[in-house]
Amino acid sequence: MIILDIKNLTLEIESNGVLVKALDKVSLTIQENEIRALVGESGSGKSLIVRAISGALPPQWIVTADRLTWRGQNLLSMTRAQRQAIMRRDIAVIFQDPLASLDPSATLKDQLVESIPQEFIPKGWPWQRRKARLRIAQQIMRKVGIKDVHAAINKYPHELSLDICQKFMIAMALVSQPTLLIADDPTRGMETNTKQQILTLLAQLNKTRNLSILFVSHDLIAISAMAHSMTVLYCGQSVESGKMKAMRRRPLHPYTKALMDSAPSFSPDLIPKSPLVAMDGTIPTLQHLPIGCRLGPRCPRAAKECVQVPEERSINEHKYRCHYPMHVESV
Amino acid sequence: MIPLLSINQLTFKPTKKWEFMVPSTDFVLGPVDLTINKGESIAIIGQNDSGKSLLAKLIVGAVTPTSGQISLNGQQLDPNNTKARASDIRMMFRQSSESLNPGISIGTMIEEPLRLNTQLSPEMRLEKVLKTLTLVGLMPDHYYFYKHMLSEGQQQRVALARALILDPQVIVADEPFAALDPSVRSQTVNLLLTLQAELGLAFIFISHNLGIVRHMSDRTIVMNEGQVVEVKDTQAMFADPEHPSSQKLINAHKALLTY
Which of A278, A280, A282 sits opposite B154 (nearest CB)? Predict the structure, then answer.
């Protein structure tokens, strides 16, 4: 069953009197119990999608969508209170950069206790309830793999290392027992050991608690280790989406191909020190977006037709937007 | 044959703070022994807080070691003679976007080391800066640009140009690829590989991305709690890590790949 359904989400930002489409008709669905990866480089709008789902956008930005529904309820037309109720209990977000998103003036205990829903605490005297809260907090911290819970719980975020803070962010997101977890670049800047611990934790939660995960990142190795399906974004346009296996075996869009080539670990028979296959140019800024397919100026297969935005086509649930996909011989 | 850079019994112990409430740390770096040949690339890997960045800073001379010597081409480097060292061993800092001065133009920034370390005339300096800019794949026009006008990948190239301007023999880079997007990262890797082949630079870099370490480096150093625990050829290291902490790192990397 589809729990989150986004169809043709467009986000317009006014910049110097002109409306710029920061997101251009992005579609995304998340099935129950699925790990979907959202891949894109910086400036591709992946964090904007996360913020559009969670409703954390400034009011002057214009969001339009054919569908933006959570279990059939339209997120855009519901009242603020209804939306907050969904965000509180059903969807949890791990934001980028734990040190910046945790409260620097409160201990971990205070922050975690605050986010435990009232329903989880049995009735009783205030000191009993306080004790129950603390118990839940310690339990969840132990579950996400923080080793020395008693030492960590009374500390401030700046006193702890980055990976403990990151695990704590996951604990805070999980304490309300959500159905969907949105993880915005949870492994950024981490060394391999910690990264693997966090990925194993997320994969485990997906199996044991039927948690659906939207995994936002540009780390393809991490993604291919755990995701079931993947959506690739480039400059606010979704270029390709489909099952992970199919996309790894045969990427159809030139951009996905370039991303796969950029990780030397994916091609084990590559000779060390040989030049990597790289795409020319850099990612355009929001003010200078090319028309049509936004990959156009960098794409090795670009032709005249690419000034038109390509329609979405699909082969067995493998959707792509390209005039000259990889399985068609180039002209 | 004399190695290009040899590090002999290098140690570093942080000076104790006279604060009674602060628990003293017993972190000691080294002793480190290491030799680097011309045209070789060496990767330093290890967990967080294992002293990787500190070792890099000790090699370039940004931090004065407690004991031990570093010699370049057989000549011992004096820790106080920063001028000779600054032109032969150059550093690229972590997050190039934050290590560039936003207030002066790219050209002025790259020219500064030349002005301070050489006797070149202004015309010769300009020529040299423009030549270095084209070498790292930027345009001569970028001389007049400011930091905020450039993308992340271009900023990385500027940092590289600043490192290359004094014709160094060794470049030390602290996580040069961490902040880059995949498609730009491949460009930077290619650029470094070609420059190394052309100029015969020795390149020491710290990275968490083991895929790139495997691709780029000749030898890999594993650090753990301030100690160099294993030094080996990269391919041998990835095939058969010996020390528990290197096994842990490399197995974690392999586990990610084999799902």
Answer: A282
Neighboring chain B residues of A272 at a CB cutoff of 8 Å: 214-216, 234-235
Q: Does A278 touch chain B (CB under 8 A)?
A: yes
Residue A73: pLDDT band (50, 70, 90) is confident
Query: Cβ neighbours of residue A291 under 8 Å, at least 6 residues apart?
Result: A307
Question: In chain A, which residues have their Cβ closer than 8 Å to the Cβ of B203?
Answer: none
A204, A265, A270, A288: which to substitute to probe chain B, counting the most B Cβ within 10 Å? A265
Residue B203 lies in a domain: yes
The encoded tokens of residue A1 equal: 């069953």
Domain encompassing residue B10:
5-14+27-97+170-257
Per the structure block, which two tokens stand in for B252? 């974690």
Q: Does A261 contact chain B (CB < 8 Å)?
A: yes
Interface confidence (ipTM) of the complex = 0.75
Q: For residue B183, give the nearest of A161, A221, A278 by CB distance.
A: A278
What is the rounded CA–CA span in Å between residue A112 and residue A149? Answer: 13
CA dist., res. A209 & res. A206, Å (int):
6
| CATH code of the domain containing B203 | 3.40.50.300
A:67-126 residues touching chain B, CB 8 A cutoff: none
Domain ranges of chain A: 2-90+178-277, 102-177
- Which residues, 6 or more positions from B88, have their beta carbon under 8 angstroms from its beta carbon? B72, B166, B168, B169, B170
A258 interfaces chain B, CB cutoff of 8 Å: yes
**In angstroms, rounded to a whole number, what is the distance separating the alpha carbons of residues B105 and B111?**
10
Within 10 Å of residue B70's Cβ, how many Cβ atoms?
22
Contacts A190 to B, Cβ<8 Å: 208
The 10s digit of each residue's pLDDT in A13-51 is: 887 778 888 888 888 889 888 999 998 887 788 888 888
Burial class (CB in 10 A: 0-12, 13-18, 19+), B37: middle
Per-residue pLDDT tens digits of chain B, which is 259 residues long: 778 888 888 888 877 666 666 666 677 887 888 888 888 889 998 887 788 888 888 888 888 888 888 888 877 877 777 777 778 888 888 777 788 888 999 999 999 988 888 888 999 999 999 988 888 878 888 889 888 888 777 888 888 888 888 888 888 988 888 777 777 788 888 888 888 888 888 889 998 888 888 888 888 888 888 888 888 888 888 888 888 888 888 888 888 777 6
Q: How high is the mean pLDDT of chain A?
A: 85
Beta partners for B46? B223
Angle formed at CA A267 by CA A266 and CA A272, multiple of 5 degrees: 120
- Tell which phi-psi region holds residue A28, choosing left (phi > 0), alpha (psi between -120 and 50) or beta: beta
Tens of pLDDT, residues A96-122 = 778 888 899 999 999 999 888 888 888
The DSSP secondary-structure symbol of A292 reads S
Tell me the shortest Cα–Cα distance from A257 to chain B, in angstroms.
11
CA–CA gap between residue A66 and residue A52 (Å, rounded): 14
Q: Which of B194, B252, B259 is facing A224, going by the closest CB pair?
A: B259
Is the CB of A316 inside 8 Å of chain B's CB atoms?
A: no
Q: Report yes or no on B118 lying in a domain.
A: no
CATH architecture entry for A2-90+178-277 = 3-Layer(aba) Sandwich (3.40)
The answer to whether residue A262 neighbours chain B at the CB level (below 8 Å) is: yes
